[in-house]
Specification:
This protein is mainly α. The chain contains 6 helices and no strands. Helix 1 packs antiparallel against helix 2 and helix 4 packs antiparallel against helix 5.
Length: 90
């Protein structure tokens, strides 16, 4: 799923470095939270608000010019645009 996310960002005209950075930020978040990319995808609606403004982990979400929260928002778009959960279930 991580490589699919990188490819999605490239297709949306994000730079190669940004696509890798966003993917890596989510991988670090998953390691920190001790979850998989798949778990993140399935529970994104619960996890993302924690890293957004006023969330209990908002300070982490704002680091490096808000890269973490921006990566989470792009990941949400990736899931919505590609129906990724439905594809992996089949």
């Amino acid at each position: 799923m991580q490589k699919q996310f990188e490819q999605y960002l490239l297709a949306k005209n994000y730079s190669h470095l940004t696509s890798i950075d966003y993917s890596a930020r989510l991988e670090r978040l998953c390691r920190k939270e001790q979850i998989s990319y798949e778990h993140l995808a399935q529970h994104l609606a619960e996890i993302m608000p924690q890293y957004d403004k006023n969330g209990k982990k908002s300070s982490c979400g704002r680091r490096s010019h808000s890269t973490v929260i921006n990566a989470l928002k792009r990941f949400s778009e990736f899931l919505a645009d590609g129906n990724i959960l439905m594809q992996e279930a089949n």
